[in-house]
Every structure is written in C-alpha cells, then in structure tokens.
Design goal:
By secondary structure, the protein is α+β, with helices and mostly antiparallel strands. It has helices spanning 3-9, 12-19, 28-42, 46-60, 97-110, 141-144, 148-156, 194-205, 207-210, 224-233, 255-258, 313-316, 321-327, 335-348; strands at 85-90, 114-119, 132-136, 161-166, 171-176, 184-189, 236-243, 276-283, 288-295, 301-305, 331-333. It has 14 helices and eleven strands. Strand 8 and strand 9 (288-295) form a beta hairpin.
C-alpha cells in the first residue's frame, strides 16, 4: 500500500466528484491530517504484509486477494480453508461501533493482538491504493474511527471487498460490497465460541432492523443511528435502490441466495435492468413518490421526474413505500444528498 497515493486518491476532491457532498466537509486541513495520522499509524508496508500478514491470511482463506470471488459461480468452500465452518448474512458497512466492539470481543476470546483489514486488489485499478491495515485489537472505536477521509472510505464505502481477520488465524470475514446482488459477508471460524455465536445471533436476530442501517456516504455526521431512525419517521424520506432482478429476493440471510443462484454464468439482463439506480423522494403522509432520479451504470442520467413532459411512471403508477421495501433492498440517504444529485441531474437533462 502506498500511503501517498492513498491520500491523493481519497481527498476532498474525491468526495466532491463521487458524492457531491463537499459542503459537508467542515475542516479540510483537519481531515487531511487525520488521514495522514491514520495511515502512518495503521498502514502496513509491503514487506510487513508479505512477511507477517499474508502467512496468517493463508491459514484462513484459500482465495487469492488479487482475484474476484463471485458468489454466483464460486462455492464458499473455495473461500475458506477446509477446517473452517461459516455463516453468512447481509452486512454493510464494514464497521460501525457496535459491530467493531463485537469483533473486539472475538479477538479477546481468540487471544488476537491485531485486527487485519485487507482490501481485495481486484477492486482497484491501481493496486497501490488497496488498503492493507493493521489495528491493535485493544484500540477503541473512538480511537480508530477518527481517520479523516480514510476511515470514511474504509469503514463505509461501497464497491470494495475486504478480508478481515485476527492474528490468531482462528476466524475471518469476507466482506463483499462490490457485486450486483447484495452487500454481504461470510464469516469463517474454526470453533464456535461465545463471542462468535453472539456475533452470529446479532445478525440473525437484528436483520430487519439492520437492513435499514445501510450505507450513507458521510460518516462524519453525529448520531448516525439516530439520524437513520429520524429519517424513517420524517414525513418526507429519501432512499435509493439498484434495479437488478437478482437483488429483489426478500432475504433473511445471504444463505437463501445460495439455492436460487445459477451455478453457471447467468444470461445478461436487459440493458435497462443492469446497474440502474433509482433515487427516490417519498411523501409518507400521502403515500406517494414525489420526485425520482434514475442513473445508468456509468452514472449517466436516464431520467428525472417529474419533468416538463411527464410526471414519471413511478408517480403515475402510485408506487408505495411498502412496494419499494418488499421488492428492493433500499438504502436511506439524506435530503442534502438527494437535492445535490437533483440539481446536477437537472443540469444534464
């Protein structure tokens, strides 16, 4: 991992171009310094990764971090070494306070000194910016989550895949957020101890609640969970979803997918159903969609509605929130994000 390249890649310019949330960044200089401090403290050199980290990784994972693991074509048995059992659930983002602290409990019981976070290199055109992070397992969430732009990307960003594991080699997480199915993780373990069982039960019991805790681009906001709950109670709410028929299964765990996905490569979907993302403004009081934006796979603007020619089919058809949640995995966003996107899309149209 090249620290200078990482700092250049993930900066305020990246945020502005990727998310249009430049106005959320209150202290550019502070966030830059926090990013530098985080990478200097926890980033691994190539030699440390090669000589210390990778040998541990090989005891847990069969899969090469330079290759793409595709759940539709690969067996999970090809991911973990033979002595490992596993469970799998919808999972996003990589860490938030509660899940990090549960991983710490696993580390304590397994006698891990460090938590390793290795980004799959296949997610990056320049492999030098693929994260290779080593965090002391005793460090608190408050200590490690103040890493400026870097922790915002590392702990929250979609379109990245990670291997997460401890130096004991007794457990590991494969976190896949770069696919067209669903954000998920597969957790492998040698022995189902209490802390791993608690982690498994948390995802199993809390799925319905947890599915609302999806990625929001900026984790610098205070009271993240409270903000999510508030958005669900607001009269006007904002969310997005990807239009892909393979993502429309109603699941309580990713394991339900295993039986439904083809073993061979599936036939391509029609062009208008691949990688299209809908951004929705919804009035909960009147149960109507009020505005929406459709972006294509390359972030090209397909449609905004209403417009001068039409109300838009989602508005015409009276699609309700119940229909959205039953047919898609929705991700809540804030009003500012939607408004920024609306302005940019309007200028393009």
């Amino acid at each position: 991992m090249n620290i200078e390249k990482c700092l250049k890649a993930y900066s305020d310019i990246f945020y502005h171009e990727m998310y249009g949330i430049n106005h959320h960044i209150n202290s550019k200089r502070l966030l830059e310094q926090q990013s530098i401090d985080f990478l200097n403290s926890y980033g691994m050199s190539d030699s440390e990764y090669r000589n210390t980290c990778f040998p541990i990784m090989e005891r847990i994972f069969k899969f090469n971090p330079r290759e793409i693991f595709d759940l539709r074509r690969e067996s999970v048995s090809n991911l973990f070494c033979g002595s490992f059992n596993f469970f799998a659930y919808h999972s996003s983002p990589l860490f938030w306070k509660r899940t990090y602290e549960m991983i710490q409990n696993i580390c304590k019981e397994c006698k891990d000194c460090y938590i390793y976070i290795i980004e799959a290199e296949c997610c990056e055109e320049d492999t030098d910016i693929a994260f290779k992070i080593k965090i002391p397992a005793c460090f608190s969430w408050e200590k490690i989550s103040c890493g400026g732009y870097i922790t915002d990307v590392l702990f929250n960003m979609f379109q990245k895949n990670y291997f997460v594991f401890g130096d004991s080699g007794k457990w590991g997480r494969w976190c896949d957020y770069d696919n067209d199915i669903i954000d998920y993780e597969i957790f492998g373990f040698k022995l189902l101890n209490k802390s791993i069982s608690d982690y498994k039960d948390f995802y199993s019991i809390s799925y319905d609640e947890f599915r609302e805790y999806n990625y929001i681009p900026n984790n610098l906001k205070v009271g993240f969970w409270n903000n999510i709950k508030k958005k669900q109670n607001d009269k006007i709410i904002y969310f997005y979803y990807k239009e892909d028929k393979k993502a429309q299964y109603q699941l309580k765990s990713i394991i339900d997918i295993f039986a439904t996905l083809p073993l061979r490569k599936s036939a391509p979907l029609p062009a208008n159903e691949i990688g299209v993302t809908y951004y929705i403004e919804y009035d909960k009081t009147n149960e109507v969609t009020t505005r929406y934006i459709i972006l294509g796979p390359n972030n090209d603007v397909v449609e905004i509605a209403p417009n001068r020619f039409s109300l838009g089919w989602l508005i015409d058809e009276g699609v309700t929130l119940t229909t959205y949640t039953e047919t898609h995995l929705i991700h809540y966003i804030d009003k500012e994000f939607f408004e920024d996107l609306w302005i940019k899309a309007s200028n393009v149209i």
